[in-house]
Amino acid sequence: MIQLTKINGELIVINGDRIECVETIPESKISMDTGRYYLVQESVEEIIQKTIEYNARIKEFERTIRRH
Length: 68
Prior knowledge:
This protein is of the alpha+beta class. 35% of the residues lie in helices and 34% in strands. A hairpin with a 3-residue loop joins strand 3 (19-24) and strand 4.
């Protein structure tokens, strides 16, 4: 899950695995695979970085589980 800021300043947490595409219009429009979309303050680059960090945390968690 990644935490983002909606245009109105409200925090939102979305499932990064469900993102279909991100457009700049000039805010970022995140289209989900469910057909919904969200307008957020973060740039496309920030969204990509947050998604990469989230995926890295998941992989590290999986490695930790396999070790035990």
